[in-house]
Specification:
It contains seven helices and seven strands. The protein is of the alpha/beta class.
């Protein structure tokens, strides 16, 4: 695309480019769905991992959500004075959450066992892990735990909490899938926040404050669940079970 003469021309060109990308995605959406379904089945049917997973689900990104995300990506790049080139031929490498799988488990410390099993399964099925997985958190203690078991960590002021992996299928087209792993309590906050506060933050002040309270409540519940399982394990050890 030639260099635009003015901002209006730039916006028009960008709108056309985004429409072309989304149109291409719509023709390939079923392939992204198959990628997510297959990864979900591989993970949930893996015998060593199965007892650690409470539930799981998958999704593909809705086209209108992709439109919104592309605008946000371009606007963020422009604000940072950075170049961002996304086209119908490379969008599946630039937008890494077109397909998504989510695994839910009961308590935080399970991640010390879940993570190596996920890596083992990905290797067995020849998936490629793009970069190191990232543990998003707002809790300093959680950050220390995840750093201790080898994760990159990022503190999120939004109070979002989840572990993210970017997985690429073993195929010619470099299609990627975002794998999220979190506790049930973290999922409660995540689903509420996603409904009213994503992708754009709500302008209702009381809702923003209540979401912060909910995040702290979910964290307290997660800590309680962690404590229950830790006490249960100590009791079994004492009894030699």
């Amino acid at each position: 695309m030639r260099k635009p003469r003015n901002n209006g021309e730039a916006k028009t060109g960008l709108k056309t480019a985004i429409a072309e990308i989304v149109s291409k995605y719509e023709t390939q959406r079923s392939e992204f769905e198959m990628l997510a379904q297959t990864l979900l089945a591989n993970l949930t049917e893996f015998p060593p991992l199965k007892p650690l997973i409470h539930s799981a689900k998958y999704r593909t990104k809705a086209p209108d959500h992709l439109v919104d995300k592309l605008w946000r990506m371009f606007n963020a790049a422009e604000k940072a004075n950075k170049s961002l080139v996304i086209t119908p031929s490379n969008f599946y490498r630039k937008v890494e959450d077109l397909a998504g799988v989510r695994l839910l488990h009961l308590h935080t410390k399970q991640m010390a066992d879940i993570h190596p099993l996920i890596v083992s399964l990905l290797n067995e099925h020849r998936y490629r892990l793009i970069g190191r997985p990232i543990a998003y958190t707002w809790d300093i203690e959680n950050q220390a735990f995840f750093s201790g078991i080898g994760f990159k960590t990022r503190l999120r002021p939004s109070m979002y909490t989840s572990v993210h992996y970017i997985v690429m299928a073993n195929r010619r087209t470099e299609m990627r899938c975002e794998l999220q792993v979190r506790t049930l309590m973290e999922e409660v906050w995540g689903e509420v926040s996603h409904t009213i506060n994503y992708p754009h933050e709500t302008n209702i002040l009381c809702c923003r404050e209540q979401l912060r309270v909910l995040a702290r409540s979910a964290s307290a519940c997660t800590r309680l669940v962690d404590s229950i399982f830790s006490s249960h394990l100590d009791h079994k050890k004492e009894k030699g079970v």
